[in-house]
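Quick entry, no commentary yet.
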Amino acid sequence: MGRYKNGKDVLPQTLLRQIQQYIDGELLYIPKQSEERAGWGQLSGTKARINDRNDEIYAEYCKGQSIADLERVYFLSGDSLRKIICKQQQNARITSGS
């Protein structure tokens, strides 16, 4: 999200007064008009890095790494790792068509 702009600098006075009736002195996010917004983590690359990490976790698990070992390597809880592994297994089944 970019820097905020002061409403009195960018909005007509009548519109500013109308908005103040609903939200006076608080921050307000106004989304872009375009429906083609980037999804979470797509622009920063975070989503891709997490997907890569999850692929690594699943591959290590399939090679025999225990949940306890994966907890120490990835600094995630056992529950989080089990969710990742379960989701990766489902994705693998979908991809292979089984």
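second:
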Amino acid sequence: MEEFFTWIGRTLGEIIRFVVDLLTGFFANIGDSARGFLQGLAGSLGISTSIVSLLILVVGLWMLWKAFRALTRRAIVATLVWLLLGFVVLSWLIY
């Protein structure tokens, strides 16, 4: 009877170990993929890969999106304001 519980414990331990190794490999590859994507994006734009630069990039793109949305509502003045702000913010990054 003791051998049976030893076998169950060993089997359960091996299953847990397999799942942990699988998840560790999966999340390590996701991290490497995200890092490569961000480095490629920053390299093609000519900006640094710092979190501040990437946040400013997101804010600039958000402003351009707001300009597009204003254009679809036919708000010409708002479109021009959002475009100007978006271009100014993005011009800080790209050199």
